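Service request form, structural biology core

Requester: graduate student, group of Dr. S.
Request type: structure prediction, single chain
Budget code: on file
Notes: please return the result as structure tokens.

Sequence provided:
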Amino acid sequence: MRTPRQILEDSATIAVVGASRDSDKSAHAVPLQLLRHGWRVIPVNPHADRIWDQPCYARLADIPEPVDLVNVFRPADQAPAVVRDAVAIGAKAVWLQQGIVSPEARTIATEAGLDYVEDLCISVVRSLERLSRRT
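Core staff response, request fulfilled:
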């Protein structure tokens, strides 16, 4: 299993399930920081066409390119379904944001061979580790 730092370092494309159009929400601000530091960030929200000036997709299955990491901003009871979708699209890792914990999602991910992080803010890890995709 890779560490959170290794997962972020190894991931070029991050799909954000539950991305928000509301700039006051962490589901908007956190992924925006990843975008600003060089990651390809793909918003997934069935109620939006564009977020961060990026095309938005209703479901992970609708994304027309490979995804390395699925970052989840949804309630814990929705996490197992999101992880199943992440497995189905061939993602290599799933990251549940701070405050989101799901033993069922963890089991699904680990049984499918995906790296798994939960209850940890991806932006905090990026900042503390001073990570950037820019060269």
